[in-house]
Amino acid sequence: WRVWASGVVMCRELIQRTAEKTITIKNQIILELGAGCGVVGFLCAKLGATAVTFTDYLPGLLVNLDKSVELQREDEDGETCSKSTSETNETNASRETRFRVKHLEWLASDPVLHNQWKQKRPMGGDGSCSANELQNENATRNRSLAPDETFSLILGSDVCYEDPLPRALAATICKKLANPGLAWLVLPVRDWPDEPGFTVIDKLVESLKTYDPELQITVEKAPDLRDEEYEGGTFVRHALGMVSVWVRRDAP
Question: By the 8 A CB rule, do 207 and 170 touch?
């Protein structure tokens, strides 16, 4: 498992925007989509979030997130003893954040998509983890996020891929976003074998509008990593960089 470049960018943007007061993390109840290692959600805890729910769909990733939550607690306990009063207060705020790890299959947000694609969904993702049908069934049955649960802030980095996932992601955001609520995605403009990267982003936006025409959607250029941070191959650079997708639902 790894942290993708868009996750690093989102974390840096979270710190900057929180300092500038252009986004509020303190006291928020947050859903992280496609959490992977959970780096964005753990930063939100440091920034004062009340609760963070990490979600992914592969059983191996859920186990990894469980371990990450455990390590986060151990790290905070060890740091508290050697910190100043102000630093200790910050750590205590993070410790008081309620963490959950839940299974969330985006396809399930649209019954038509689910029926069309449920047998084609890869169980092993990019090969970084494996699963079998029984493990997937157990995760769906025992760890799924409640269907009617919504969140005032939804975050996700590098979570938009080829068909049918733009539509499935849009359906999930529309179903899980509270009113009022904000969803923010940082996405690489990644070309796929059969379509350009911006086409994938456009599919996401059009799907969001189809599911809920009242949503306010903004797509803007996002910062990128520095040139030297791409050296060594840890992160993959995409020629067209990254975008931020902002989705707002406002109470009538």
Answer: yes
Give the pTM: 0.89
| pLDDT tens-digit map of 153-200 | 999 999 998 889 999 999 999 999 999 999 999 999 999 888 899 999
Q: Where are the alpha helices (DSSP H) in the chain?
A: 5-20, 39-46, 59-80, 85-95, 111-117, 133-143, 165-176, 197-211
Burial tier of 19 (Cβ tally within 10 Å: 0-12, 13-18, 19+):
exposed
174: helix, strand or coil: helix
Q: What is the pLDDT of residues 94-134, one digit of tens each?
A: 566 899 999 999 999 999 998 888 777 654 444 444 556 77
Burial of 220-245, coded b for 16+ CB within 10 Å and e otherwise, reads: eebebbeeeeeeeeebeebeebbbbb
